[in-house]
Structures are given as structure tokens and as C-alpha cells.
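[Meeting: bench + compute handoff]

Bench side (C.D.) handed over the final construct sequence. Compute side (W.E.) agreed to return the predicted structure before the next meeting so the bench team could plan truncations. Sequence as handed over:
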Amino acid sequence: MMRTDTLKNKRHIYYIEKGFQTRWIIKFCVLVALGSLLTIGLVYWLAQHSTTVTIDRGQVAVRTTVDYLLPLMTQTVLIQLVIMTLATIVMMLFISHKIAGPLYHLKMMFKGLAQGDIAASMRIRKGDQLQIVVDAYNEAVSQLNHKITKLKDTTAALGNKAPSMKDGDVKQHIEELKKILNTFNTV
């Protein structure tokens, strides 16, 4: 039974918010590329005033360290760049979906809220990010539910009692409704 619950809660679509995740991945890939360029630049800068003695095909050669290392360093860094870029894409896709999933879910919940659906609370998977935002959303929905329930109850009581009420009782219920309505800040 535990295995079924684990599989049921596992998100199978990792590319949820394509724009957000694409920008996220590109930023990290650019960071990897800049790190590679920085490595080449530092080696070039640090080695430009030194010489290296090498034995190339049985002959001794004296060359600047830059002339000797730069081609090898460039090839190494390019291979490393390709590997690290692929690893970064995969890793950032998995990491970003832990943010994009809750963001997508929040967006859907806010759309429902705009349509008047305040009955559902939001839950996200353990390990997903934005738990604090989800908790704040759930608290807001809970408060709205409480206030709307009070409005409905007071309105129903007023409707049931209205035919037999005196002006003072009606005014008291209207004041209670106004008090509840005044807890909402509107434009």
C-alpha cells in the first residue's frame, strides 16, 4: 500500500511551466559556460609569461606555456562544457519542477478562487518548494470560508426572522452583516 501511495503522489510530467523552467535552465547553463570561459581565461592569463619545455615526437621544443596548454585546455573545457551543460539541463529540470509544479497548482487554485471556489485547500508533495506560500494560501482560504459562512448564516437568520422582526432586530442583523463585510478590503 505504501508503494501505491508513493507512485500516486509522484509527478510524471517534469516540464510543467515551460517558460519558467526554460529560463531557469538557460540561466544555469550560461553560468556553466561562463565558468568554463573563466577557466580558459585564467589559465591563459596566468601562463602567458612562462615557457614550457616539451618533447614532441622525439624532439625537444621550447614554447610558451600558452601555446602548449591553450589547445589542450580548450578541448578539455569544451568537452567538460558539453557534459556539464547536459548534466545541468537534467538536474535543473528536476529541481525546477519542484518549484514549477506548486506554481502551476497555485495558479489553478487562484483561478478557481476567482470563480468562487473556496472549498478546496491546496496540498503539495513533500520536498516541493513554496510550502510557505501554500500554507498562506490555505490560511487565506480558511479565513474567507469562515467569513463567508458567517455571512451566509447571518443572512439566512435574517431571512428566516424578517417577517416577524421588529425594526431594531433588523437593524442589529444588518449591523452584524456590515461588520463582517467591513473585514474585506475592496478597491
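W.E. noted at the follow-up: The chain has five helices and two strands. C.D. will use this when planning the next construct.
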